[in-house]
């Protein structure tokens, strides 16, 4: 999965109701995701810097619970 969005901010979203706290995401990409006191992911790079965007597809796909997703900003505004 390759994420391409020229000149657009991307956000990584965590579905906390789906997350089981495995820690794979923050173990793999600590520049993007950290953990809170309960071991659940917290996005620390918001919006995702352009130099980290190549990692997003693999990060989303590695989540065994499918609790991560990438969102483009709403084009309204």
TrEMBL record:
Cited Pfam families: Fer4_15
SUPFAM superfamilies: 4Fe-4S ferredoxins
ATP-binding recorded as keyword: no
UniProt GO molecular function: 3 iron, 4 sulfur cluster binding; metal ion binding
InterPro entries from the UniProt entry: Fe-S_cluster_ET
Family annotation (PANTHER family): FERREDOXIN
Protein name listed in UniProt: Probable ferredoxin FdxD
Source species taxonomy: Bacteria, Bacillati, Actinomycetota, Actinomycetes, Mycobacteriales
């Amino acid at each position: 999965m390759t994420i391409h969005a020229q000149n657009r901010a991307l956000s990584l979203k965590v579905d906390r109701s789906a997350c089981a706290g495995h820690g794979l995401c923050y173990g793999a990409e600590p520049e993007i995701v950290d953990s809170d006191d309960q071991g659940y992911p917290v996005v620390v790079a918001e919006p995702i810097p352009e130099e980290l965007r190549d990692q997003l597809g693999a990060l989303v796909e590695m989540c065994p619970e499918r609790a991560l997703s990438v969102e483009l900003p709403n084009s309204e505004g």
